[in-house]
Amino acid sequence: MSVDTITDFQSNKDIILLDKDTFTEITTATGGNLGGEFATVTSNPETSSGIIVYDSTTGGLFYNANGNAAGFGDCAQFATLLGSPDLTTDNFVLR
Q: Is the pLDDT of residue 70 over 70?
């Protein structure tokens, strides 16, 4: 998985579309809210149990395919949001 750079994300206007064919560990139904599968951290994103993890210090967005196990499994960072904007579960749409 490559790392995309998002240069002008505005959390009050923009969304991030996640395809469940790529992000297979997400159990939330298509069109649903990530809820507990999303986590925001300020450091050490690899220690989070969230499936989608946002480091609000660096702007790094990570896919944690192995949940509670150490590290990210076969996955890792998939995007960087420049300026580290605020992100909530409302900024994601599943398809």
A: no
